[in-house]
Amino acid sequence: MPDPTMNRIDGLRGWRYGEVLLVRHEAGSFSAEVWNTMGFNECPQAAWDELDAGEIAAERGATLALMNGPRHWVLDAIESSIRQSAPTTKFGTLEMFQAAVVDFGATPPSPVPYAERFVARDTVFEWAAGTPLHELTSPTGQVYVMQAFALYVDPTLSIDELAGLAERLELPEGWMFETRVTDPMINMHLFKVRAFAAGQAVNLLAAMSRGGLQFMLIIWLQGIWLPLHGYAYVDTPLWAGIYMLPLTIGFLIAGPASGAISDRFGARAFATGGLLLTAATFVGLILVPADFNYVQFAALLAFNGIGMGLMAAPNSAAIMNAVPASQRGAASGIRATGMNAGMVLSMGGFFTLMAIGLASRLPSSLYNGLTQAGVSSDAAHTIAHVPPVGTLFAAFLGDNPIRQLMQQVDPSQLKPGSGVDVASLTGKSFFPHMISSPFMHGLLIAFGASILMLLVAAAASSMRGERFVHAEAHGHAGERHHETVGEALAHEGQALSVPALLDDEGTGVGATEREIVR
Q1: Would you say the C-alpha torsion 114, 118, 120, 123 has a positive or negative sign?
Q2: Would you say 23 and 65 are in contact if contact means Cβ atoms under 8 Å apart?
Q3: Quick check: is 472 in a domain?
Q4: Residue 268 contacts by C-beta under 8 Å, 6 or more apart in sequence?
Q5: What gap in Å lies between CA 130 and CA 127, rounded to an integer?
Q6: Where is the domain boundary, 181, 215, 247?
Q7: Tell me: the pLDDT tens digits for 391-428?
Q8: What is the pLDDT of residue 468?
Q9: Residue from 62, 151, 49, 54 nearest 92 by CA
Q10: Is position 395 within any domain?
Q11: Domain range for residue 170?
């Protein structure tokens, strides 16, 4: 139970109490003694209902008595000049202490709603970081923060229902009630900065467009191209990774260089150009045949990596530059969340779109191919209607899907003399030929969606505005703005060997902002 005699009282949020205000008029000024139940009781409703304001005013020699309660605190702590030994008294059966004496000046207190009044006091009200603030804003923009809520109108009102209070209040014209969080996990106000909002949109859309790319390419290599070029299914996972290296190399070349150069020239051109280049590579991947020329394929992978490298570092830098130093952690968290969420959505979306494309063509292709190889109609029908994703994953895991399916459905047809062309059926080319056309159809759908998202991302990137650095915009320009491109690239390498400099409080040298959150 909070100790009412201390200058600081913690743990108030949700605490139920009641107050009696004894208003006096002396020497042309109105003041009120505030008597509070905190520390003695939780203001039981029955005991509160027994109190009569008129009788209390007459007994105490006050001009009037105001009944303020029962109420619940929505703040967390109070600091005030409460004396170490505050006077106490009883109103009916409720024991209370004198919490304060409030000076109202020449105007008497009035219960008229939405009447603005200024009270002189030295009390400090505290709300813990992350707790909701319920704010009432006047037509002139004056913001009033709710300290406590009363049970006058709705005795059943709870603290969890306050966020929806705006729908129940009959506010005068121009007034507004809203609930916000003091230290939200995601600060939505950051999205009011155009450079930040555009960067985050690019970040999410780019992640969604390419998150499932590698899975599609690996399945393409393992299920079609590598077997057609003589690789055993069991070896395809290793070689698929090797043949995908141009994608990584392209990113490694473009990423650091674009980050350094964009610090001088801004992120817009690099990020937008990288997104358009990536979209062009997706078009190229759609146009190449299933049994492609590897030189063309490797070039497309390399340019895809370069495109994403051109976009990644400048876009991340633009996001971080758009916010003040005190918000960079939150900005980075939003960026990481968007990127990871986009990757997950992309993987699920790519496989879904691929499955839709395969489902429309793969069953008939498999059925015709199996029956032509001598497989019975019933077995061919069963195999043809196996979910297409399962067939893809069999190839993804380095196994021959047709051999596995035949062994599950009718293994007797794999024996010599069954009339089935077993060598052809379980060889390296049968399944790739059967799946090539349906796979490319599914790839068209999946990569088409990626191209659309990349074009939208490029449009968002182009609208991010000129180079913007929050510190420079507020008069804290950095020293490296006038570096040459060569110097900027050199600093990228030097940064790997120079330790961070910290001041004696563990903050970075040159830090100008700190926040203390209770």
Answers
A1: positive
A2: yes
A3: no
A4: 318, 461, 462, 464, 465, 466, 467
A5: 9
A6: 181
A7: 767 666 666 777 777 888 878 877 776 777 777 777 77
A8: 62
A9: 49
A10: yes
A11: 8-181
Environment class of 28 (CB within 10 Å of its CB; exposed 0-12, middle 13-18, buried 19+): exposed
The answer to whether residue 311 sits within a structural domain is yes
Residues 65 and 195 placed together within one structural domain of the fold: no
Packing angle of the helix pair 328-372, 294-321 (nearest 10 deg):
160
- pLDDT tens digits, 134-163: 998 988 888 899 999 988 888 889 988 888
Residue segments in the chain with a per-residue pLDDT below the cut of 70:
1-6, 81-85, 119-121, 183-185, 392, 394-399, 417, 467-518
Check if the beta carbon of residue 346 is closer than 8 Å to that of residue 212: yes
One domain for residues 108 and 204: no
Length of the chain: 518
- Residue 471, number of CB atoms within 10 A of its CB: 16
The torsion defined by the Cα of 102, 104, 110 and 112, in degrees rounded to 10, comes to -100
- Check residue 441 and give its pLDDT: 86
Task: Indicate if 169 and 222 belong to the same structural domain.
Answer: no
The burial of 253, by beta-carbon neighbours within 10 Å (0-12 exposed, 13-18 middle, 19 or more buried), is given as: middle
In a domain, 294, yes or no: yes
- Total domains in the chain come to 2
The whole-angstrom separation of Cα 400 and Cα 391 is 9
pLDDT at 483: 45
Tokens representing residue 194 in the block: 């155009």
Q: Enter the tokens of residue 270.
A: 């690099």
Please tell me whether the overall predicted TM-score, pTM, comes out greater than 0.85 for this model.
no
Question: Which pLDDT value is given to residue 486?
Answer: 46
Assess whether 160 and 208 both reside in one domain: no
Give the pLDDT confidence score for residue 467 in this predicted structure.
Answer: 66
DSSP track, 157-172: --GGGGGGGGGT--PP
Same domain, 44 and 154: yes
User: Of 514, 513, 185, which is closest to residue 334 (Cα–Cα)?
Assistant: 185
pLDDT score at 352: 83
Same domain, 243 and 312: yes
Please report the pLDDT score of residue 4 as a whole number.
47
Q: 176 and 279 share a domain?
A: no
Three-state secondary-structure class, residue 65: strand
* Claim to verify: residue 207 and residue 173 sit in the same structural domain: no
d(CA 127, CA 125): 7
CATH number, domain at 307?
Answer: 1.20.1250
